[in-house]
Amino acid sequence: MRAVEIRPGVRIRWVEVPGATPARVYLHGLGASSAPYYAEAVAHPLLAGRRSLMMDMLGFGISDRPSGFAYSLEGHADALAVALAKIGLRRCEIIGHSMGGAVAIVLAARHPEMVRSLVLVDPHVDPATPSLGAPGSRGIAAYSEADFLSHGYDRVLRDVGPHWAATMRMAGREALHRSAVDLVRGTSPTMRKLLLELDIPRVFLHPEDAPPSGGRELAGAGVQIVSVPNAGHNIMIDNVEGFARAVAQQRLSV
């Protein structure tokens, strides 16, 4: 485990595997932590040998959980940019899952010097409508912050699967709610529009039975759409081989 102070008393932490450059930076989804989701894939023969940083965003995993942080997509991206700069990294390969994919897009748009290429793992690219009882960010964002802190968190934790619950317990409750609210609200322009306009190699991984909406437009803008069989939303866990192969192949276009 390593850490860097991004502002007085606030640290982003990550698990790092040494290796060759360019570095790969792995970003987790909402309520997750990077090492439990990516460690097996990072050790896969197709991906081993590269410097790999499994980073936890503020509010999640082993990173700090400052209560005064907005936990917006832009805030997460800016905090990561500060961390990467202090580590001395530029032009990284960013791999982002779910919410981490949205943050990766914003990072590339706001801090292009930090990002060499993107691998987006079933990412959020469009705004969504909150709905009580809906899975993931839509259900969390349907609560007011006060209601989520008083009882919504316990209900959400009870209803999620065991893998997600294990890392969600590590998240700050304010961070979880505020991140979900901003994720469903989306950015302006939207994450999709930002992604379409980026001028770097971009790969969009999706489960075979859940192709992305607007896939033709994404492909037309140069985004490589990759279908991964035998996988749900957590592609890097469900099909490690397929995930590793897709990540390894994208470097050919860098």
Major β-sheet profile: 8 strands, mixed
Q: How large is the share of residues in beta strands? A: 15-25%
What value does the average pLDDT take? 95
Number of helical regions: 11
CATH class bucket: Alpha Beta
| Overall 3D shape | globular
CATH superfamily: Alpha/Beta hydrolase fold, catalytic domain
Kindly state the percentage of residues in helix: 40-55%
Radius of gyration: 17 Å
Instruction: Work out the oligomeric state of the chains in this entry.
Output: single chain
List keywords for this structure.
254 residues; globular; alpha/beta
What does this entry look like structurally?
- Strand 3, helix 1 (34-42) and strand 4 (50-56) form a beta-alpha-beta unit.
- The chain is of the alpha/beta class and 254 residues long.
- The chain has one domain (2-249): Rossmann fold.
- Helix 2 crosses helix 3 and helix 5 crosses helix 7 (173-185).
- It has helices spanning 34-42, 73-87, 99-110, 137-141, 145-159, 162-168, 173-185, 191-197, 215-220, 235-238, 240-250, and strands at residues 2-7, 10-17, 20-27, 50-56, 92-97, 115-121, 202-207, 223-228.
- It is built from eleven helices and eight strands.
- Helices cover 41% and strands 21% of the residues.
- Strands 1-2-4-3-5-6-7-8 form an eight-stranded mixed beta sheet.
- It is globular and about 45 Å long.
- The longest helix has 15 residues, at 73-87.
